[in-house]
Predict the structure.
Amino acid sequence: MSRDDVNIDWQMLGQQFRQQREAAGTPAEEVARQLCLAKSQILALEEGLSANFPGMPARLWCARRYATLLGIDLDAIAPPATVSDSPAVVVPNAPAVLDHSLSDSESLARTPSSTMGWGHWAVVLLFLALAVVLAIQFYAPSSPVPIQPKPAATPEAPPSVAPVAAPAPVTISVAPIEEPNPEPVRKVVEIQGIEAHKPARSIYVMANEAAVLIKQREGQEAETLSLTKGASQRIPLAADERLRVAEGKNLGIFFQGRKVSANTIEAGDWVRFVPLRETASR
């Protein structure tokens, strides 16, 4: 048990959450929508329960977001522990307010901007090197053709002109162009949720090392997401969007109560997440 769990009176904190929410006249469904959480998780926080969270880091992360939304100083109630075995939890610094005008897309967490990976830079540098080699070999000056001197003229015979040797053929050796290795064909693995009350359009990622994730929608360019070591983040996904791990293997990816296997993460396969309610309707 971490020091965070010991320092927090979850029952008392849950009562403050419920009183603040009811005083604002906001239903639990609206709070869950703005925080991108399930309604059962909001109710669990208000009742001081931990059954709807995968672990203490996720529970504490959700409590801090809820406290920030309601304007409650969680550190004043339970100061954060200085030593903890749990991974770092990303908590927004700026206080938030209940805004009923926010749409679902505006409530989702933003992800880092796209960056070009090492593989792309390697291909670009390879083409530049080949272009320089071809230019040097093609424009290199040919060796001059030697001209034989004329023999001295004698009074007995008219001067003779030595024939000029034909220029030697110029041979230009062209190095074969090496085609870059194509992107390997990756299979698509479907991960089906097992708990319908959990978010159906987002995943929860815990990075035990620095990692790079790639997500892509059908017919659109891929988007690159960078995670630092120890980061925990909820990543939104559209219905037709898939995701794969490009760098970093020591990750925990959770979707509706199901964890993505380590073999799928290490293989770098595409993963399509299918919510439980969509599975039941098929």
The radius of gyration is 33 Å. DSSP finds ten helices and nine strands in the chain. Residues 118-138 form the longest helix (21 residues).
